[in-house]
Write a structure and sequence with these properties.
With 84 residues, the chain is an all-alpha fold. The protein folds into two domains: 52 residues; 31 residues. The chain has three helices and no strands. The radius of gyration is 22 Å and the shape is elongated. 0% of the residues are buried.
Length: 84
């Protein structure tokens, strides 16, 4: 029973963190300036469900591109330093 209480408490804390993160984003991010919502952050989080959707193929592609770009930048910087 204690284990179930710990899981419930963790889920509640995670939910509160998601709500607070959303409220902060709505407040700080200029993208949302002037947007009026007839709903609360808590209502949005309640409708999201418990699983975080991750677009793994897009994430893998972005990570691969980032590695290639940083490698290219590193080699360009290295070659520039050889001629100074």
């Amino acid at each position: 029973m204690s284990n179930q209480l710990n899981i419930n408490n963790k889920n509640k804390v995670m939910k509160e963190e998601r709500i607070q993160k959303l409220v902060t984003d709505w407040t700080v991010n200029p993208r949302w300036k002037g947007i009026e919502r007839p709903y609360t952050a808590e209502e949005v989080v309640n409708l999201q469900g418990s699983y975080k959707i991750e677009h793994s193929i897009a994430k893998m592609g972005a990570e691969k591109l980032w590695k290639k770009l940083t490698r290219i930048i590193h080699s360009v910087n290295k070659s520039k330093n050889q001629y100074i």
